[in-house]
Automatic annotation (TrEMBL), chain A:
Keywords, alphabetical: Cell membrane, Membrane, Transmembrane, Transmembrane helix
GO CC annotations, alphabetized: plasma membrane
InterPro entries: ABC_transp_permease (IPR001851)
Keyword Cell membrane carried by entry: yes
Protein name: ABC transporter permease
Gene Ontology MF term list: transmembrane transporter activity
PANTHER family xrefs: GUANOSINE ABC TRANSPORTER PERMEASE PROTEIN NUPQ (PTHR43370:SF1), SUGAR ABC TRANSPORTER INTEGRAL MEMBRANE PROTEIN-RELATED (PTHR43370)
Cell location: Cell membrane
Segments traversing the membrane: 14-31, 66-85, 92-114, 154-175, 208-232, 252-271, 291-309
Membrane topology: Multi-pass membrane protein
Keyword Cell membrane: yes
UniProtKB/TrEMBL annotation, chain B:
Keywords: Cell membrane, Membrane, Transmembrane, Transmembrane helix
GO cellular component, as recorded: plasma membrane
InterPro entries: ABC_transp_permease (IPR001851)
Species of provenance: Halocynthiibacter styelae
Listed name of the protein: ABC transporter permease
Leader peptide range in chain numbering: none
Amino acid sequence: MEVFDTIIQISDSAVRLAIPLLLACLAGLFSERGGIFDIGLEGKMLAAAFLSAGVAAATGNVWLGLFAGIAVSVVLALIHGVASITFRGDQLISGVAINFLAAGLTVVIGQAWFGLGGRTPALPGDGRFSNLEWPVADALKDVPVLGPVYSELISGHTFLVYVALLIVPLSWYVLFRTRFGLRLRAVGENPGAVDTAGISVVKLRYSAVIICGVLCGLAGAYLSTGLAAGFVKDMSAGRGFIALAALIFAKWRPVQALMACLLFGLLEAIANRYQSIEIGALEIPVQFMQALPYILTVVILAGFIGKAIPPKAGGEPYVKER
Amino acid sequence: MQKLPKWADIVLIPLINLLLAFLVSGLVILAIGKDPIVAIQTMIDGAFGSTTGLGYTLYYATNFMFTGLAVSVAFQARIFNIGGEGQALLGGLGVALVCLSIDWPHWLVALPAAAIGGAVFGAAWAFIPAYLQAKRGSHIVITTIMFNFIAASLIGFLLADLLKVPGSMDPATANFPPGAHLPTFNDIFALFGLDVFKHAPVNVSFFVALFCAFGFWVLIWHTRLGFAMRAFGQSERGAQYAGISPLKITVIAMLISGALAGMMAINNVMGESERLILNATEGAGFIGIAVALMGRSHPIGVILASILFGFLYQGGAELSLWEGIPRELVTVIQGLVILFTGALDGMVRRPLENLFLILRKPTKNGAV
């Protein structure tokens, strides 16, 4: 029974840890399907985490925090859009710039605002998203096997967790079953064809970038008001890059993105719980677990296990023919 | 047709971009309720006001010259090596292993050996992404980002488990033997009876960095290989048609790039901490990107941009000490420099091009 409890606990924390990855990963999915590479997921997430926690701490209202987080993330996404769509700059360089801007500004503004060395005050009850208890979760707790699965694993997460999980089928529907989705995918593969059909490449790409901003905003808000109770410096801790890795792992598809993020969340949960894992005589150091998502991504990218092919026009600014 | 005169491309545009970055930084300082003028005075005073401050500025600049040259050399072949950080971390491992291997008799012997150690480890770390890009088509930007994280985990593991001093809790290697101590500027000037650059970590690696910049210039503009790299950067297909192998050029450019990033370790690991510690690079690998963009991938530009960022780094430390502005302000400036010189370059360039076209027209008509 003890083993079972441990498994439940680890799975539970794996889900919690997978959510920010998932939201950021879906953000990247929309952007990259639309032909805009985005290595600034990390920065947008960090900025959103900061402003969500800051506004929630200042007003005591987590919803205002959430909207502030989304707003700042969309602003950064628009900077990326202006640089890479309007001025046809290098999308990778723009993403790098946004990461640095967010890493610096969150601390500089945080220090001026709260004077706590770049962190926000710990959020009180109303300043963060509380866990939603599902009906009769408490009563079922003692039912063997299914009880803990229902009351711990399925019930008792914050609102944003369920939102994130719902966004997965929604993204699939939007991308693969709507006109907008078809056009968005087309603009990432062959913008010239989309343009010829009389549809604005610029508008489509901007909408991709804005969706990306909104989702990164959710991811960041979840980090500081759902997963933790407040913002600390550099709290995104490379999650934006793991999300990017998950995106490649999922080969730019939403449902697979969920799987990849759950896998990487599980790795993080295990690494958090154990300092090292012994399998027989072999001892796996915790650093290896931390590096595993990155190693797996390189292996996938190298095409040794299935080939990951990014959207064809990704990273290329579109120049209208005259 | 050349739209812009050369001087405008090399001097005017970077200057305007830099001014824009500083302007926005000034607004940030204003927004947090501080005085930008006082801030810049504090920074200049802290970075250039004393020989100690100058020593720190040049020490940071040395790091950035290595990483800036590393990013630049790959840029020449139109390859974006974002993995300088990881390569520099691995370079630190190489330098540490060399320094700890024997009891070095003199730094003149230890320095070249350590430099080779750092270069080999850095180059090896760059080789895998380069090979995967050229041979398997995996995007080098993504793989080098991943390799930065893998490098950090690897070094963390080695320092926590294998390389640390037995019995110590500190995740760091043993101190290097005295024979591996590089003369600092303070040591050098003491020979002439001058007591300057006191306590500053700037050391002979500074000259090694300058030499590398010179080597960069020779390589890129005066050798066959450099020509092949530039040709590949300008047009991959054209270069291929001329018989230049993309695999070879990608791998060679990345090996040189990784070697330069790895050599940074003679400054920060061998010259300053004199042992390998966690996070020894302190983000210098990423600053290399800003330096390369700012310096237009030219050695002179890289040297100047490195000194600028050395100033920002040292001045930023003083700012946090005296003005209560966190040194992360430097990260903001760094981000703005990358944004304006790299991504938003077209915002300044296009209007300027139009301006120069308008200015040029009358003379053209006159000639006809």
